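Explain this one:

_____
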Amino acid sequence: MPEARVIPLRPEDDEPRASPRPAASWEEQVAGGLEFLSRRLTGDYETDEFGFDPDLTDHLLMPLLRPLFERWFRVETQGLENVPATGGGLVVANHSGTVPVDAMMTTVALHDDHPARRRLRLLGADLVFDLPVVGSVARKLGSTLACNEDAERLLTAGELVGVFPEGFKGIGKPFRERYTLQRFGRGGFVTAALRTGAPIIPCAIVGAEEIYPLIGNSRTLARLLGLPYFPITPTFPALGPLGLVPLPSKWLIAFGEPIETASYGPAAAEDPMLVFNLTDQVRETIQQSLYQLLLQRPSVWG
C-alpha cells in the first residue's frame, strides 16, 4: 500500500482564507471524489508528524460532520473575531454530552465559520487513542495526546489547540448537573500557554448537555469494558442502536476575549499561584458565558 508523505508541522497560511465557496455542482462533486480516491490509492497526500491527514479530513470526515452541525444541531457561533486568524492559540472549552460530540462541533465551527478557516488540533485522553478505529480517526482529524509536550509543540508551530479540562468528569456528569463546570485539574493547559506565550481563548458550548441526557451510570459494565462510565440515558440502552442517535438540541458556541499570556514570560509557568489564578479565571469566564448563552437560547430545541 502506498504511504503518505510526512510533512513537518507548520503554522497556518498567513493570509486568511476567503468566505465559503458556493456549493459544488454534482459534476464537480463526482470529479472531486474521483481525484480524492486517486490520491488515496497512489499515496499522493500528506500527513504531519502527529498523523494529521488534511486531505482525508477535508474530503471525508468534515463532510460527515457538517450535516450534524448545520441541520441537526443548527449550531450558531459567536465571538469568532476573538480567535486569531494566524499563530498559536489555546481554545479552552467546557465538556459535556456523554459522548464528546462537542469537540467535533467546535472543530467544524472554527473551520467553516472562521474567516481564516482555522483548524483545531484537539488534545484527547489516552483512552481515545486506545480505542480501535476511534483512535486512528482522531489522529487523522488532527488530535493528539493531552500532554504538555504535544500542546507546546503545536502552539509553537502556530497551531490552534483545543483542550477540554473537565475531561471525563465533564462528559460523564449526570444531567441534573448540566452546565455546571467540573474541576479543571491542575492547570496544565495554562502552563503550556505560558511557556509558549499563546493566548487562551475561553469557549462556552450550550446544547451538548441535552443530546444524551445522562440519568444513570452502570459502574459494573463500565468496569468490565474498561470505560470511565457506562451511560444510561432515556433512549439508551432501552432503544438499542436507535438510542445512539443524539437528540436534536439547539447549540450555541461562543468564543470569549483572549487572555494574553506572552507578557508573563515562560518562567511564569513555574509559578503555581499564577497558574492557579489563570486557571480559575478561565473557568469562571466560561461558567458566566454559559449562563448568558442559556438566557439567549429560546428553548432546548431552538
